[in-house]
Design a protein that fits this description.
The C terminus is likely disordered. The chain is an alpha+beta fold. It is globular, with a radius of gyration of 16 Å. The strands form two sheets. The protein has a seven-stranded antiparallel β-sheet. A five-stranded antiparallel β-sheet has the order 3-6-11-8-9, with no helix packed on it. The longest helix is centred in the first third of the chain and has 16 residues. It is built from four helices and twelve strands, in the order αβαβββααββββββββ.
């Protein structure tokens, strides 16, 4: 049994290598600062605290969603289908209260892309299958893969330890990427390709 199946989550160091993650971080900041479509929309949900913004349908992030399928399947010993991905901005002081995810997020991947501050780690709290609360700390490019519909997880207010004075024109922000999948042959399989307008066909973007 793999660690993911045994404990309900696993931390993957350098899920995205350092150079690729730095390029993704720079790309994302450019998208934010130039208001390039699709735009970031404020996340309105009772589990969200503070200012959090989401962006769906970004082609660069979609490539990661699809490209990591073989890796996810190896961890699960099971075929998976993608459901959707989202690039998220957390502003300083924002967080997420304890919750479990909706059905299309059966397998969740939370990857730390980067931030514009002197806080260099991202954190997430997860209760494993043994009901133990575990604090997960991620460096840039690291990811935690978890059973999103089964394990309660949350994020305490971000950046409270930061004493940073933002660079001119740059507001404090942390960028986190989420990639979601469902397993073939399991009850949530019907949620594969959860957001039709957010996916590509076999040969091109849909």
């Amino acid at each position: 049994m793999t660690e993911l199946l045994k404990n309900g989550f696993v931390v993957c160091k350098e899920y995205l290598d350092k150079a690729s993650c730095e390029a993704l971080f720079t790309y994302t900041l450019e998208q934010i600062n130039n208001n390039i479509s699709p735009e970031f929309l404020k996340h309105e949900d009772p589990t969200i605290k503070g200012n959090v913004y989401d962006r769906y349908g970004d082609k660069v992030y979609q490539e990661i969603l699809y490209g990591k399928i073989p890796y996810i399947e190896e961890l699960l010993n099971n075929q998976v289908f993608p459901t959707y991905q989202v690039c998220r901005i957390y502003k300083k002081g924002s967080g997420v209260t304890p919750h479990i995810d909706r059905e299309p997020c059966e397998i969740g991947v939370s990857m730390f892309v980067g931030n514009t501050s002197d806080v260099y780690k991202s954190h997430l709290f997860i209760k494993n299958y043994q009901e133990e609360t575990c604090k997960v700390e991620l460096s840039r490019g690291d990811a935690v893969i978890y059973m999103g519909c089964e394990l309660e997880h949350w994020r305490s207010p971000i950046g409270q330890e930061s004493q940073e004075v933002p660079l001119e024109g740059v507001h404090w922000k942390q960028i986190q990427a989420f990639f979601h999948y469902v397993r073939k042959g399991f009850p949530h399989e019907k949620y594969a390709y959860d957001s039709p307008g957010n996916f590509r066909s076999t040969d091109s973007w849909a």
